[in-house]
Amino acid sequence: MTLKTLIIGGSNTVMQPGYLSALLSVMARRGVALDIVADLAVGGTTSAFGLYQLKLHEQELADCDLLLIEYALNDAFVYGDERRPFRHWARFYEGIIRFARERNPKLRIAPLVFGARNGSFLTSVPAIDAGIGYISRWYGTSCIDVSQLLMQRLGREVVGHPSFYSDQGHYARPVATTVVANLIADELEPALAAPLRPAALPPPIDPEHFANARALDGPWLAKRLGRPAVDYTNRRFSVAAVDLGQDLLRFDIEKGMLLALSYVCEPRTPPLDLQAGDQMHRAALLKGGVRDGTYKFLVSMLSFEFLYGPTLLDMQQTRLLTLSGGTAPAEHKLHVPKDSVRHETFPAEPALPITGILFTGNLKTCAIERSGASREPALGGLVEILPNATA
User: Fold this and answer.
1) pLDDT-based confidence at residue 373 (cuts at 50, 70, 90)
2) Among candidates 180, 175, 173, 156, which has minimal Cα distance to 73?
């Protein structure tokens, strides 16, 4: 049996060799070939990026047989278990599964649940893991809780031992990754062998899930904003971006919110300033691996939960946001994402390459405002012009 497989996830899935290469070998020996038609995993990303990736690859999603999802570890790291952020996260995760099923009713979906070294699963009920289990049961997916299986079969002393992980967030190679691959295969093989019975989508858990979120990518933004696309390419990625430079990007969203910004982190990337009403936020965009010279660039995503405070769950507002490179002294609230580092110095010639946005609601305005006195005309009604645009 050969199954066309699409994968979204974080660095455990990117890591080669890792659990994924071992899983492909184990499944092949058992007579199941997982033909990877699109590996969309990106290190350091969460379910927000997974939803964004599926929106940009609708055709591959519609044509594949199996979707693997691996975000539990990163989601737990970013969202934790506080009420508002947890429900916001659940809207992303339900959005992934519901959108995937809408586009491909015959799709088999297998969420994978990994845990970090010294993770909460060792001593308590982990909120994100439990949420994935709940959403999976609701939609009838084949959730494989690796953390739970490891605890049940190997015990706390083995799983909690420092040698089981190579660092805080990655299983040690080759022993732990092989163990993980075999556990996944033990659960995945019978799930794939069961008869496929497509069914109508159940009513949503959260009526304001993000399955209907819209994604606009770099080439589309470049075309609409009248800016040249800048290409970033390495052995894994080839992405096009709009370099905002020292200009401003203005959004006006009705009954929704800007969920996340996809960007390229490179050595000249400054912090991001976000003006929301009378509040100025500054977000650190720099990744340690880029700062230290390990990587020339990294494809990254900034989620905007920190902007909305007590209104995070309110989808009925009109929100005006202005984004710009944060290179000038200004009074602001500093936000340092857990996978970013503070900017110790600001680049003399900043580059702010934006590769896409994810949003809900009606995007009434998306316009560049020059850093000087002149302005470019606003572009209105973008969603109505090209729904779910990706080109």
Assistant:
1) very low
2) 180
pLDDT of 246 reads 86
Rounded Cα distance between 352 and 84, Å, is 30
The residues pairing with 375 across neighbouring beta strands, listed in sequence order, are 369
pLDDT for 328 equals 74
Can you tell me the distance from the alpha carbon of 229 to that of 220, in angstroms, rounded to the nearest whole number? 9
Strand-by-strand arrangement of the 362-369 sheet: 333-335, 279-283, 272-276, 318-325, 248-254, 362-369
Q: Over 90: is that where the pLDDT of 132 sits?
A: yes
Side chain identity, residue 344: E
Dist. CA 362–CA 388, nearest whole Å = 12
Kindly report the backbone phi and psi dihedral angles of residue 160, in degrees, each rounded to the nearest multiple of 5, phi listed first: -85, -5
The answer to whether residues 218 and 356 touch, using CB atoms and an 8 Å cutoff, is yes
**Interatomic CA distance for residues 201 and 322, integer angstroms:** 37
Phi, psi of 62 (to 5 degrees): -65, -25
SS3 labels along the chain: CEEEEEEEECHHHHCCCCHHHHHHHHHHHCCCEEEEEEECCCCCCCHHHHHHHHHHCHHHHHHCCEEEEECHHHHHHHHCCCHHHHHHHHHHHHHHHHHHHHHCCCCEEEEEECCCCCCHHHCCCCHHHHHHHHHHHHHCCCCEEHHHHHHHHHCHHHHCCHHHEEECCEECCCHHHHHHHHHHHHHHHHHHHCCCCCCCCCCCCCCCCCCCCEEEEHHHHHHHHCCCEEEEECCCCEEEEEECCCCEEEEEEECCCEEEEEEEECCCCCCEEEEECCEEEEECCCCHHHHCCCCCCEEEEEECHHHHHHHCCCCCCEEEEEEEECCCCCCCEEECCCCCCCCCCCCCCCCCEEEEEEECCEEEEEEEECCCCCECCCCECHHHHCCCCCC
Global pTM reads 0.92
Residue 384 scores a pLDDT above 50: no
Question: Based on the number of CB atoms within 10 Å of its own CB, is 304 exposed (0-12), middle (13-18) or buried (19 or more)?
Answer: buried
User: pLDDT tens-digit profile of 198-249?
Assistant: 788 999 999 999 999 999 999 999 998 889 999 999 888 789 999 998 899 9
The answer to whether 132 and 92 are in contact (CB under 8 A) is no
